[in-house]
Amino acid sequence: MTASNPSRRLSERALKLLDASDDERIAAIGQQIFIPYTRANELLEEMEGLLLHPKTNRMPNMLIVARSNNGKTEILRQFLKRHPAEERADFDTAHVPVVYIQSPPGPSEHIFLNMLLGSLGMMTSTNEAADRKLLQVLEILRMVETKVLLVDEVNALLAGSVAKQRFFLNMLKYLSNELKISIVAAGTLDAVHAMKTDLQIESRFPVRPINLWQEGEDFRRLLVSFESVLPLKKPSVLHKGMLPKKLYGVSEGMIGELAKTLRSAAQHAIKTGVEQITEEVIDECPHVVNRQTFNPEKL
């Protein structure tokens, strides 16, 4: 809590930054910080269960579905952050319980396997056969004892034909079966359509949606969480008055858009010396101004 305003609760990080220079605080606000909320905590808890699941012939998987800019990637990266790779003193290899990869732009097994090998610190020739790369992936993932593979932006699969989509999805199923690992895929609603190209794949990836936020008590609690990480010298009280309605309208119910708006507004509040987020600061901050002035018809 701040000494000047005992009712305001700030995170330990935000409290330490209050005495920092304006430039340091602006830079710190620009860094992405995970804000926990009910749905994110539910999904992270389910993913923890996957990590602890015993090896079986049919490992559980899941498909996280949300609109763009509504928090799915942040949840995956938070899970990855919770389970980083660890060097093992008694072995020559690291322990990598969780691996994250973004789907390639189209169902290309070569690009996917290259990216997967790259995420594991392995370089490979672009001319090397796909089956050889797949064997390398299997060997390394076994060696580092990976338990959960995170595959982001699965909707990119729709850039190819149905046949190629099915081939790529079957490769994911093969990885899960052969290694007895769980796969957490994430994407937009298009990802659901991609999974539907194969009934077996669809049954293996139950959908876990992240819905758009609704204006109400949950949204106001989210605003309290956001304010707690912003090192502003004055309280903004984001969850009261007209600010919740203002921020909901600007963000259109998307947590990613809300985060960008609040970071931009907080930085603008420091630069202008206001030191708190108000309706006027929101209207004047660069992120909101740029959105309002952009007109695609003029391009």
From TrEMBL:
<dbReference type="InterPro" id="IPR027417">
    <property type="entry name" value="P-loop_NTPase"/>
</dbReference>
<dbReference type="Pfam" id="PF05621">
    <property type="entry name" value="TniB"/>
</dbReference>
<dbReference type="InterPro" id="IPR008868">
    <property type="entry name" value="TniB"/>
</dbReference>
<protein>
    <submittedName>
        <fullName>TniB protein</fullName>
    </submittedName>
</protein>
